[in-house]
Amino acid sequence: MRRVQFIEFHDQPWFPSLLRDYVTDALQFGFSLFQVYAPVGPLLQCAMESTGSRSIVDMCSGAAGPWLDLSRELGSHHTSGGAPALQICLTDKYPNLGAFEKASAASEGRIRFYAGSVDATNVPRELNGLRTMFTSFHHFLPHTGRAILQDAVDAGEGIGVFEIARRAPSAIGLTFAFVLALFVCTPWIRPFRWSRLFWTYLLPIVPFVLLFDGVVSCLRTYRPQELLKMVDQLTARDYQWDAGELPTRFVPITYLIGYPQASSRESAR
């Protein structure tokens, strides 16, 4: 199945921010409910140990994605002073500030957020740490994807890309089941809003966008070999890259992880 470049409604600048927030809220609820990204914890832990960083800058965070659960797993060890050993900064081009504030308040100090708009191809240099992207890298054309990776390399930061979407009939079939579950569970999404119910049940824009964008996401997702082809075109020396598919109980998670090798980090100090 060839990759298809097509639009997703919720990442368009003209898409109403209220509906975008409801879409990202639903996705975050589903990620948490089904723990779809729980298996990537060891990969992230390994990347952080390799870079020596305990800071993460999450890009295209939506409504915080899987980070509330992942932060508990990765931040289970604390420093001797009692401060959290892990710090996560949520960012987005169209930040869902309400969801960011909710995640930050529930994280026991592990999660903070950047309130301004952040372009993944030009991340502010004051945001330091391992960069991550969950269910978002597929939004970008190959040349923009390379620019995102190149920006991380230019900043000397590690980066991890993770995609539960996949170009396969099984993934597309699971998208229908996932959206149906979110449709049924909408009254339990917090904060409770009557307008959320209106745009889900009476005028079902939210489930339509979730289904349409979910199928398109599968068709747009890069395969590991395509991600490595992007890496080959970077001006990056002394970087370690790994790409593959991580088995899960649902569908494999496609990933790309890159970080400076130890010799490169030491020479940069």
What does this structure look like?
There is one protein chain. The chain is of the alpha/beta class. The chain has a single domain, classed as Vaccinia Virus protein VP39 (Rossmann fold, 3-Layer(aba) Sandwich), CATH 3.40.50. It has helices at residues 17-34, 41-51, 67-74, 97-106, 142-154, 169-185, 194-202, 205-220, 224-232, 262-268, and strands at residues 55-59, 87-92, 111-117, 130-134, 159-163, 239-246, 253-260. Helix 1 (17-34) packs across helix 8. The model has no long low-confidence stretch (mean pLDDT 91).
Which CATH architecture? 3-Layer(aba) Sandwich
Strand content: 15-25%
Low-confidence stretches: none
Could you give the order of the helices and strands?
HHEHEHEEHEHHHHEEH
Q: Separation of termini?
A: 45 Å
- Quote the CATH topology: Rossmann fold
Structural class by sheet pairing and helices: alpha/beta
Number of domains: 1
Radius of gyration: 18 Å
Considering DSSP H and I runs of 4 or more, what fraction of the residues is helical?
40-55%
Rounded mean pLDDT is: 91
| DSSP strand tally | 7
Q: Total helix count?
A: 10
Quick structural overview:
This protein is of the alpha/beta class.
Topology:
Blueprint: H1 17-34, H2 41-51, E1 55-59, H3 67-74, E2 87-92, H4 97-106, E3 111-117, E4 130-134, H5 142-154, E5 159-163, H6 169-185, H7 194-202, H8 205-220, H9 224-232, E6 239-246, E7 253-260, H10 262-268
